[in-house]
Amino acid sequence: MENELKNIGKIDIKAFQDDLISWFKEEQRDLPWRKDQDPYKVWVSEIMLQQTRVDTVIPYFNRFIDWFPTIDDLAKAEEEKVLKAWEGLGYYSRVRNLHSAVKEVREKYKGVVPNTPIEIAELKGVGPYTAGAILSIAYGIPEPAVDGNVMRVLSRILSIWEDIAKPSSRKIFESAVRQLISQTEPSAFNQALMELGALICTPTSPSCLLCPVREHCQAFSEGVQTELPIKSKKTKQRNVQLISIIATNEQGKILIHKRPNKGLLANLWEFPNIEITLPFQNEKEKIKDLFKETFDLEFKPEKVIGQIEHVFSHLIWNVHVYSGKIVRNPSENQEWKFVSLEEMEDFAIPVPFQKMRQLYKQ
């Protein structure tokens, strides 16, 4: 590790901190979770920001805090309502873990987010980055909060040529932050590193001429800023073909189905669907048989209403969507419900099925 961090000795750490923090105080974006340093709001924002852009998160954050202003409100909420508040953000395991963890905070810590690295790291879904972000931003404790933005910035500042996609590389960057972080303003320092990565030190075409810490940057001085960071490619996403049906009963209500409580999109509501193998003949009889075999659902397909694609981190869904009529109503229970389009708004429905609902409306 000493070899990877050999360039720290070339930096005037105090000047680096001052330049970075001064820039942040002048240029930081006006984001709703920055209005105060409430540990709960910092926590919610950091969970939402994992794998999701800031602009996308803002309205979701505002709605979530509006629905659950405090840890107590979230801890007492029904899972169905929590999933509904998260609807559209994806990665639903994040909010399930958050919901479990706030219940633990309510019971074990009287509703106060713990402020020690050991206690906070024991909470469900709180990894090293989230723990460091809460401790530094909300509590002013000089802990590293290393995400992709921070690794990209520091790989350039310190000319680190380790693959940032490897989990083992995180330790190198955490060690770098421990040596560079401001002991008096850790909140501003960590947020400034993240902000620099988001606004200036971007993945491609970094705006080096606008960078407040350009004179401290080894990659800029060596002219290799566009070659860093080193990041190996992820494994290819698997393509999945599905047939989904929007099936109505005699009253015109639509059948929805609750997904299993484990796995992808667990416990969310969907239109009944089946994975198929290609080539698939668009024969209505074949579709009818498939849904009868899989769900014991007697359904008469009427027309193709379209096709949607939805990209997950590890899968690409290609969904062929049919509308039609239910011949024999399944009994309504916890897994099956008939709802109107208006009533559907009360259920947590993931984005691919929202796209299908939109197709149906059109």
Plain-language structure description:
- The protein has 362 residues and is an alpha+beta fold.
- It has two domains: 6-222, Endonuclease III, domain 1, CATH 1.10.340.30; 238-361, Nucleoside Triphosphate Pyrophosphohydrolase.
- The protein is built from 14 helices and seven strands.
- The chain has helices spanning 13-27, 39-49, 54-67, 71-76, 79-86, 92-108, 117-121, 128-139, 148-157, 169-180, 186-199, 218-222, 284-295, 351-361, and strands at 238-248, 254-258, 269-270, 273-276, 298-311, 315-328, 336-339.
- Strands 4-1-6-5 form a four-stranded mixed β-sheet, sandwiched between helices. Strands 3-2-7 form a three-stranded antiparallel β-sheet, with no helix packed on it.
- A hairpin with a 3-residue loop joins strand 5 (298-311) and strand 6 (315-328).
- The chain is elongated and about 75 Å long.
- The relative contact order is 0.11.
- The model has no long low-confidence stretch (mean pLDDT 93).
